[in-house]
Amino acid sequence: MERWVARGKPAPAEVSEWFARNVEEAFGQFDPQTGRFMEGDGWAVTNQDIMLCMAFLYLHQAPGNRLYRDAMLLERIGLTGDALRSFQYPDGKVEFVKTDGSKWGPIYMPWSMYHWLETYGLLAPELGETRRADWLEGLQLAFEGIHREMRESLDRPERTSASVVHNIPTWNAMALHRASRLFGRPEWKQTADTMIRLTLDEQDEEGFWPEHHGPTTLYNLVYVHALGLYGRHNGEIDVIPSLDKALRFHERFTYPDGSRVETVDGRTKYDNHPSPMGLVGFTLLPRGEAYARSLIALAMNRGVKWRAPHLANLLLYWNMGSPTDDVETEESSTLFDQPVFAEELARSVAVKQDDWYVCLSAFAAPRVDSRWGQDRQSFIGVWHKDSGLIIGGGNSKNQPEWSTFEIRTAEGGHDYVPHAGTLNADGREISLSCGPRTLTVGLRSVSSDCAELEFSSDIVAGDEGLVHIPLQLKRGQPLDAGEPEEARVVSEQPLDIRGDRGLHRIRHAGWELRLEGAYSLNWPSYPFNPYAADGSAKLNEAVAVLTLPLTAGESRRLILLNAGSSL
User: Fold this and answer.
1) Other C-beta atoms within 10 Å of 522: how many?
2) Which of 348, 405, 346, 396 is nearest to 375 (CA)?
3) 434-452: b or e for each residue (b if 16 or more CB lie within 10 Å)?
4) Does domain 340-562 sit in CATH 2.60.40?
5) pLDDT tens digits, residue range 395-418?
6) How far apart are alpha carbons 298 and 334 in whole angstroms?
7) CA–CA separation, 237 vs 174, rounded Å?
8) pTM more than 0.70
């Protein structure tokens, strides 16, 4: 125990106790009449995935785990699986329902079917004959359907690797491989292995699987998690080189508080919580073990309550290793733990220094019609240890105000999604081309006091060029801005603050932003949310948009100061 504390990491017993406590807290959401885990009056199929967490705690004795061999827990697990079984259609699919009541059609829900499968594999001897037979029938229906759909996709004459590889088929391939072992279906294994090979082939050399033409730090972890479980299940295909490349990507694009860097993600918005997704794969590598221990420590220290089955997956296969007093080797240490780095990857530069983390991305990509692919339009992320994310938040769709660069030319052109981007990593700057004009964004300095950004463009007289900076505001905290400076408490109420010439200061939540010249600040700007049927977003997804007009031949500068700055 002392060695773990000396290394600043939680001991395995502490993690087990924390996990058990987190799962127990969810029991208040359980409806014993239906077997469903509710969220208020809403329910989603994936709410039942907690059954694997309960199964793990039922079978594993550890300090602080009061649920070990608890008969009431076993019955709760049974009812949880029964609810999923009773919700299946005759072909084994379930209706994709969300907690808001929206319905997205029948599906072999990939996440739930796998976690149900693993729960069955762990507890089949203790389920009772009737329940065991009922679950077996439901699972076999589901995996017959998953296998059929995968074969149809693979057997299409016109198919290419890129057309079939996606995070869901990869996950289903892992689950199908596991089901083939449990149910003695070798033809399922053959199909699963074919998909796994295609997945490995489609990975970019820089560690990500492209979705809608580029990386996504969230869904990349789905691939990692699936390949990790495939490896843990003794799959015959070597997934380690692929996981090594993916770890290299995520070591660089994880904020120091453990949350994912959204700046390079073309699909999802910023989420300030670390996630256990992918750790079961990363821990097949020595430095991935170090990365996992650091993320677990951050989640525990920040009061994040991991109760997702992804942590159960991890704890089933990994005992957290044994820290020693030896100096870490290059192989067993992770870049993520380094206090300072400047790294180039995925057409982006990530700079970690003096408690700042700054990402400038030049990863431009074409717009897509799919609701799931956002416009790659926002290319700056700035985080500080004391404030969290200050600039950034992700991308939206059909919203120019979320774009780093918006240009209206004198000839009548209007562009706000760059068609090209270039990276000058040595100069810590990016160039974004929209139509005939280019914006250059440079990180000019980073120190313990501040980070400074510069914006310049080749716009000409008659053009209207705008820089849009998404600022993260915290509800209930004061925002000092405007002429004269006036404190306003951030709420749902709209704010429209403007300044003209001279020096301006914007203060909020422990940071201060200084700029000179005209600006406007508008709150809240809600993004398009593809996961809501109507596309609506909540307040915690909104940003304040700071807009800086550009003038031909002139640059604009922003200086961000932390709360303890002496400047």
Assistant:
1) 17
2) 396
3) bbebbbbbbbeebeeebbb
4) no
5) 999 999 999 999 999 999 999 999
6) 15
7) 12
8) yes
Beta bridge partners of residue 548, listed in sequence order: 467
Tokens of 153: 């996709």
Q: Which residue reads 């609701």 in tokens? A: 371
- Residue 401 per-residue DSSP state: G
Compute the distance between CA of residue 96 and CA of residue 120 in angstroms, rounded to an integer: 22
Q: Please report the pLDDT score of residue 330 as a whole number.
A: 66
| Cα-based angle 251, 256, 261 (whole degrees, multiple of 5) | 65
**C-beta neighbour count of 333 within 10 angstroms:** 15
- Residue 444 has phi, psi (to 5 degrees) of -85, -30
Q: Which residue has the tokens 């599906």?
A: 107
Which two tokens mark 431?
A: 């160039």
> For residue 245, which phi and psi values (nearest 5 degrees)?
-65, -40
Mutual orientation of helices 309-317 and 110-123 as an angle, nearest 10°?
40
Domain ranges for the chain? 2-336, 340-562
pLDDT tens digit sequence for 330-379: 678 999 999 999 999 999 999 999 999 999 999 999 999 999 999 999 99
CATH superfamily entry for domain 2-336 = Chondroitin AC/alginate lyase (1.50.10.100)
Same fold, 2-336 and 340-562: no
Tell me how long the chain is.
567
162-210: pLDDT as tens digits: 999 999 999 999 999 999 999 999 999 999 999 999 999 999 999 999 9
- Sorted by sequence, the CB contacts under 8 Å of residue 194 that are 6+ apart come out as 154
What span, in angstroms and rounded, lies between the C-alpha atoms of 187 and 191? 6
